Structures are given as C-alpha cells and as structure tokens.
C-alpha cells in the first residue's frame, strides 16, 4: 500500500542550491519522486496552503518568505511516506532539529521573524490530499 505526501523545497533551499541534496535524501531513504515542478507561488495558493496558520504572529512573515523566490513542489510516494518524510525533515525549529535530518544538518536560525527551515511536508493523510490538490 503506497501513499503520497507533498514536499516543498522552500525559497531558502532553492536559493542555496539544495534541491539536489534534498531530493537525494528522499531517494536514498527509498521514496519515489512521482511528480516534480519548480514554480513561483501566488499569494492565493500560499494562503490556501497555510490557512491553518492565518492570524498567528508568524503568518505574514511566513507568507513574505514563501513569496521571496521559487519553490519546488514534489509528490513523494511510498508506504508511510507522510510520517517518514517528516522524520527525515526533522523538527520545525532548525536549531534543535536532530543531526542527520534535513533541517538539522542543512539549516539554522538566521534571526528572521519566521524560521527558514528548507522544506515543508504534509502532516496527515487529509493534509496530504488537500495540499497535493492545491499544488498539482
Ligand atoms: P512544520 O513546517 O514543521 O509542519 P508548522 O506547520 O507548524 O511547522 O509551521 C509552518 C511553518 O511556519 C514552519 O515550517 C516554520 C514557520 N513557523 C512555525 N512556527 C513558528 C514559530 N513559532 N515561529 C516562527 N516561525 C514558525
Ligand atoms: Mg505544517
């Protein structure tokens, strides 16, 4: 039984030329890149994507950050990939994300209003279905 998750390589990952390194880690883990595209997201798309965070203090900085450059959207597939990708991505806060994870190894806190942590991964089957429908 296979499932899909939405992975986004955020503008910091694209700017830092980490697209290959991030995809390499997904593939090395055994997941499959089923669909992939590089896009310039609109505010409307991001507002729908991050609807759960509307009203939070970091919402506007998060939107500005996500609008600051291109994003790579990936439909990543494999048994338990939703949970598995979040495991290899690491904790939201890159300062405390474990070594060995994407965020722990490759990102840090730069003192910006919103944490720049390289990747997004859907957090549940429902989120994955909703987000994949938005981006693909
Ligand atoms: P995740 O991306 O680990 O699922 P999230 O969905 O709670 O985390 O938040 C979305 C993004 O918003 C997250 O990747 C970074 C930013 N963010 C979350 N909480 C934050 C906070 N307390 N301060 C600053 N940025 C935050
Ligand atoms: Mg989230």
UniProtKB/TrEMBL annotation:
- Family designation: Belongs to the NDK family.
Its taxonomic path starts at: Bacteria, Bacillati, Actinomycetota, Actinomycetes, Micrococcales
What residues make up the catalytic site?
120 (pros-phosphohistidine intermediate)
Q: Which organism is it from?
A: Aquiluna borgnonia
What this protein is called in its record is Nucleoside diphosphate kinase
The keyword Transmembrane appears for this protein: no
GO BP terms: CTP biosynthetic process; GTP biosynthetic process; UTP biosynthetic process
- Names of the cofactor(s): Mg(2+)
Q: What is its EC number?
A: 2.7.4.6
Per UniProt, residues of the Nucleoside diphosphate kinase-like domain are: 2-136
Which residues are involved in binding ATP? Answer: 10, 58, 86, 92, 103, 117
Catalytic reaction equation(s): a 2'-deoxyribonucleoside 5'-diphosphate + ATP = a 2'-deoxyribonucleoside 5'-triphosphate + ADP
GO: which molecular function terms?
A: ATP binding; metal ion binding; nucleoside diphosphate kinase activity
Keywords associated with the record: ATP-binding, Kinase, Magnesium, Metal-binding, Nucleotide metabolism, Nucleotide-binding, Transferase
């Amino acid at each position: 039984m296979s499932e899909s998750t939405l992975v986004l390589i955020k503008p910091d990952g694209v700017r830092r030329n980490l697209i290959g390194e991030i995809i390499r880690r997904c593939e090395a883990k055994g997941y499959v890149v089923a669909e992939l595209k590089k896009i310039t997201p609109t505010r409307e798309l991001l507002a729908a994507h991050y609807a759960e965070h509307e009203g939070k203090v970091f919402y506007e900085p998060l939107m500005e950050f996500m609008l600051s450059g291109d994003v790579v959207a990936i439909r990543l597939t494999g048994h338990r990939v939703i949970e598995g990708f979040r495991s290899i991505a690491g904790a939201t806060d890159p300062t405390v994300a474990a070594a060995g994870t994407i965020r722990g190894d490759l990102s840090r806190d730069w003192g910006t209003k919103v944490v720049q942590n390289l990747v997004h991964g859907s957090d549940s089957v429902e989120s994955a279905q909703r987000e994949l429908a938005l981006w693909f």
